[in-house]
Write a sequence for this structure.
């Protein structure tokens, strides 16, 4: 009953871990889950700290369902692009119930889905908004996505979230580079598209066709795409690890294979860079589609 009384309406895009902390709290966190010690490791890029089924029951008075929690309050929609269908199904079971054998068995994913480091990122302006409108702090999903250093809403540089009950001061606001903001926008977009990968495939196919990187017969100009995409990533992606990963010889083939439907899994970060690349050429905005 105490938990029900203390539950609060979620912020847009707030992580389930942050909601759990507000609704349930933690003996050790003092209402601040980011100060939890090792052993209480949040799942799915630090967005989930307790099983979602009981959390959904607590938040029911606010119209929150299990479905809403999974898609709007965890990084699952982003991470699932890199999962095989089997891992995807197990991951969902683990998100909902808190356990599932081999839920993070994909060797390419474990570091990002069940991280052992406890760094949570935040945007000073988003914290300020939450404090002003909801009277509390909140951790947002899109700030926890891999390789991001900017807030897509405010263009602010993300910073490590300071623990404690009060938000950081607006004096700490610093602008991010336009390239970092563009990657943040593309990453948040890919996250939101997690619910409908087919629609995303269609958009990529159309956008690649418009840039003459997909031919009339449905085949792709893979070599041309590879050269252009690698050069784009070297010039516009700040994270050296992601730049290196984008430069791998088979990256363009992997991406076009996914768009074509031949390949089931590709890491969402690569899709985000492809999205950023195509929009930089066409000028298309994110709210124009899907
Ligand atoms: Zn922000």
């Amino acid at each position: 009953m105490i938990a029900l009384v203390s539950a609060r309406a979620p912020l847009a895009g707030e992580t389930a871990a942050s909601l759990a902390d507000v609704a349930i709290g933690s003996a050790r966190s003092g209402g601040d889950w980011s100060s939890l010690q090792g052993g209480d490791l949040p799942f799915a890029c630090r967005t989930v700290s307790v099983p979602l089924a009981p959390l959904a029951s607590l938040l029911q008075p606010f119209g929150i369902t299990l479905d809403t929690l999974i898609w709007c309050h965890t990084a699952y929609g982003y991470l699932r692009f890199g999962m095989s269908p089997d891992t995807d199904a197990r991951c969902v079971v683990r998100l909902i119930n808190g356990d599932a054998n081999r839920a993070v068995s994909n060797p390419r994913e474990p570091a990002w889905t069940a991280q052992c480091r406890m760094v949570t990122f935040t945007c000073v302006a988003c914290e300020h908004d939450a404090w002003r409108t909801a009277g509390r702090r909140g951790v947002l999903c899109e700030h926890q996505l891999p390789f991001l250093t900017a807030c897509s809403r405010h263009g602010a540089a993300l910073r490590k979230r300071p623990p404690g009950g009060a938000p950081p001061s607006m004096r700490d606001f610093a602008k991010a580079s336009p390239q970092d903001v563009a990657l943040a926008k593309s990453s948040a977009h890919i996250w939101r598209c997690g619910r409908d990968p087919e629609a995303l495939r269609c958009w990529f196919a159309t956008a690649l066709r418009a840039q003459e990187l997909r031919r009339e017969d449905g085949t792709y100009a893979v070599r041309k795409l590879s050269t252009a995409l690698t050069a784009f990533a070297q010039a516009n992606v700040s994270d050296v690890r992601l730049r290196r990963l984008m430069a791998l010889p088979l990256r363009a083939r992997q991406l076009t294979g996914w768009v074509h439907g031949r390949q089931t899994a590709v890491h969402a970060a690569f899709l985000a860079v492809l999205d950023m690349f195509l929009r930089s050429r066409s000028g298309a905005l994110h709210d124009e589609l899907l």
